[in-house]
Design goal:
By secondary structure, the chain is mainly beta. The protein has no helices and 9 strands. The strands form 2 sheets. Strands 1-5-4-3-2 form a 5-stranded antiparallel sheet, with no helix packed on it. A 4-stranded antiparallel sheet has the order 6-7-8-9, with no helix packed on it.
Amino acid sequence: MTNLQHEHTEHGTHSHGPGCGHNAVAHGDHLDYAHDGHLDREREGHWDECEPAGHTVHEGHEHVHYDECGHAQVQHGDHVDYLHGGHRHAEHEGHWDDH
């Protein structure tokens, strides 16, 4: 899976980190922060929007996420992702994608 990254020039002065109020999501070798329906990542002194390109099916994911399933929910564009086991899961065409 490749990632689309572009500088988030309208990010303002907010700096993400522990206690900033946004959910942190492990993403490869860095942390993303869920913020205003997208994911932000610090890179080279600025914030990028860090988004997956395409869909990667999370094979063998039998748990069904829903409002009261116990996993943190993050608004992500036009859908909700569920933070689970170091991944973001999103429902997609009858299966769960690993974002």
